[in-house]
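Q&A log
Question type: sequence-to-structure
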Amino acid sequence: MLRFVISELAPGFLIAVPQMNDPTFSRAVVLLVEHNDEGAMGIVFNRPGEITIGDVGRAHGITVNRGAGTTFNGGPVQTDRGFLLHRRDDVPESVRIAEGIWLSVSTDSLRPLLAGDPALYRLCLGYAGWGPGQLEKEVMVGGWLSGNCSAARVFETPADKVWDLAIRDLGVDPAFLVPSGGPQ
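Response status: OK
Response body:
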């Protein structure tokens, strides 16, 4: 059973600043699900991947609803592992991350989610991880903005609009963020 520790940053969003030159995280929004003395773990949910939900369904013998779309690149660590962010409190082996956001890593969760409404889940392959103190340093030097997580941003906002709107949710116009001179 998954269990996560709550901190000042998690659960929450990490929003890459415009200066983030790392192609893995440029304009990324990460749902930070765990943050403690041992490090941090989060899932990028606004980067559509190349593998379709249909491909995943076929690989597991699951009939997928039409229009299910694509998986998402959840981060650079364990990209062969799936992380299901979803809205359903009735899915087996799921952990509540925040209001309206559940997480499952169980293959038993695939069937009810993939056969259901695609608007109720995002299947992310891989995750983002930070070692002890690493994320704190990146936040201190201005590599990330942090904000409250929102089920609406995760499930209702088109992936190409998430970054802009997550920054606007902080009361900041992205056009006023300086796009140079920050973390590489």
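Response note: Residues 1-6, 180-184 have pLDDT under 50 and may be disordered.
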